[in-house]
Structure formats: structure tokens, C-alpha cells
Amino acid sequence: MAKTAPRTxxxxxxxxxxxxxLHDEERLIRDTVRKFVHDRILPGIExxxxxxxxxxxxxxxxxxxxLLGMHLQGYGCLGASATSYGLACLELEAGDSGFRSFVSVxxxxxxxxxxxxxxxxxxxxWLPRMAAGEAIGCFGLTEPDAGSDxxxxxxxxxxxxxxxxxxxxxxxxxxxxxxxxxxxxxxxDDGVRGFLVPKGTPGFSTRDIHRKLSLRASITSELxxxxxxLPEAALLPGVTGMRGPLSCLNExxxxxxxxxxxxxxxxxxxxxxxxxxxxxxxxxxxSFQLTQEKLVNMLLELNKAALVALHLGRMKDEGRIxxxxxxxxxxxxxRVALDIARSARTILGANGITLEYPVIRHMNNLESVLTYEGxxxxxxxxxxxxxxxxxxxx
Length: 394
Fold this sequence. Notes:
By secondary structure, the chain is an alpha+beta fold. It starts with 23 loop residues before the first helix and ends in a 6-residue tail after the last helix. The radius of gyration is 22 Å and the shape is globular. Helices cover 50% and strands 15% of the residues. β8 and β9 (283-284) form a beta hairpin. The protein has a 4-stranded antiparallel β-sheet, covered by helices on one side. It has a 3-stranded mixed β-sheet with strand order 1-4-5, with helices on one face. Strands 8-9 form a two-stranded antiparallel ribbon.
């Protein structure tokens, strides 16, 4: 007679026991990042969020953990799996979206194009220092009049003898004000090209964006290029056209579909804990049917989103993921995280709008995450085209 398998312990944040599907190295990376978030980020995040600052000194600490460009090979990069990178993003965003954004921009939007499209000299100059957190990068694509339609960018790059001259503005650039190098995409005669613009280059300046109510623990800036003269060595020679910046965005979106699961988990756990400790009408909130319904709905969506992230991570590790499938994950998981944050806030009541709890902070951050790296509308149309064969956004 067959033995009955021991009953799996039911964990609210991992109700489907996805833990059992992780490899030892993946668990080690996850646990290391989770501890770093607990010890280094959570004690200061309320202050940084309230003040609208990002602790730049954390960059080399993230570098020592191997988290910067961790999914790239060589040049001081960890060479971790896509799933391990995703788990790191999840744990970072459970702390705050600003820290996952920093790591995403550094690794997927600044280091990746150098690694993928740069010369060996460019890779040697920048990647080891960026992996160590000694140099910070940013990604200049979005413009004041070119957000969801980046191909309509106005930033120009023209030949001037052996050099290039860039003119234009980039807006909503994460890390812009603290970056040592900007990967700037500009329109040239032969198409969109990428350039490395070091801090301090004459004609290149930044202006930080203040009065944000979202992603406050993150630096967001405008890049200003006024007759910026660059040598040929500043050009990323490996790509021409929108394929270059869009491939970088796809890497960053992959990190987001994991990261938002972390934000959702933080909100769910805060609401679950609060419902057990908060008493109304002589009994805990958790004893009311309406509260249990909210918690169960959060439980379902959180665990399904985690399952989507893990499945897409395995597909990416196998080299068979498509950009449309990344859009699926980004669109679904950001929506789920926002819904969970909003529902969690109702359980916490007025306490839910204070920084004493993480919920309103995550909720505000997720409003930005819903928009950047492709709005929910654009990802909807990407999936619409994938299933109908008809392009609807042009």
C-alpha cells in the first residue's frame, strides 16, 4: 500500500509551495537579498521616501552582493540565471520599488547595451566599475514629447568631422542626476543610435525632478544635451534602429514582472498581520467574512503572479521567451500588485495611509511602475497584436 506523502505546510505568501521549485543557488541569492533588504533598506526607507532621497552609498554595497548586472557574463558580473535575477528583483521591491529600479536601470538599461552592443574597449572601461557600483549608469530614451512612441524622438546626432554632436532632452530618467555615464539614444541619418555620454562632458547637464508623490526613494531627472560633442569611440556600434533601446527595455520589464510580486507580498503580509492584531466590535478584523474575502482574493492573485514570474523565468533561462510573453507578465503582475495594495489599504483603514506601514508607499510606487517600461495600454496593444495579428497603435 502506497504511503501517504506528508502534508505540505500552507504558507500564505507561498501557498502553492513555489519554494520547492527553486534550486539551491536561487534560494541562496534570494535569502541573501532578503536579508540585505531587512538589514539595510527597511530601517531607512521611511526616511528616504519622506525626504525624496536615494542613498547613493548603497550602490557599492549592491555591487559587493553581485546584484549589479548580475544576469550578464564576464567583466565582473555574476553571470546568474534569469530566475535568480528575478528573485533578487522580487526581494528588492519588497523593500521598495526605488531600489529595484536602481538595480534594473544599472544592469538592464545601462550595462546591458554596453555588454550587448558596445566595443571591447567600452566594455572594459565601464562594465567592471558598474558591476562594482563604483560607476552609476542611466538610460536616456524617453523625451518630453516621446514616451510611449519613442521612435518619434527629437534628440539628434549628426556627424561633425570625426565626431558626433548631440542635441535634445530626455525626461523621467531614473538615476540621471547621480549617473557617471548616460546611455543616450538619438536619431542619426542612418537611424537611431546609442551613445555613451560621460558625466562632465561639455554641453551635458541634468536637472532632478522634484515634488514626486511616487518613487520618492529614487532619483528621477531630465538630461539636457546642448551641442554635446562626442568622439566616434562613444558610439555603440553593435546596433542601429529601435531594436537597440527596445531590447534593453525588454530586459528591464522582465525584472519588473518579478519585482511587483515583492511589492504585492509586502502589502499582503502587512494586511494579514494587521487583520489578526486589530480588534473591532470585540473581535479581530480577521474574523469578519468581508475581511477574509479580501485576504483570500489577495492570496489568489499574489500566488498566481508568483507562478507567472517563475514560469517566465524558466522560459528565459531556456532561451525561449518572447517579448510578448514579457509584456504578459509585466501587464498582469503590475495590475495584480496595484489591486493587492489597494485592497490591503482598506483593511488597514486610516493606518494604511501612513509610512508606519508599507502599503501606501508601495501603492504610490506602483502607479509609476504601471506606466514606465511600457504603459499598461501599450502592453495591452502588444498582446492584442500578438493574438489578432493586427497592429492597433499606429
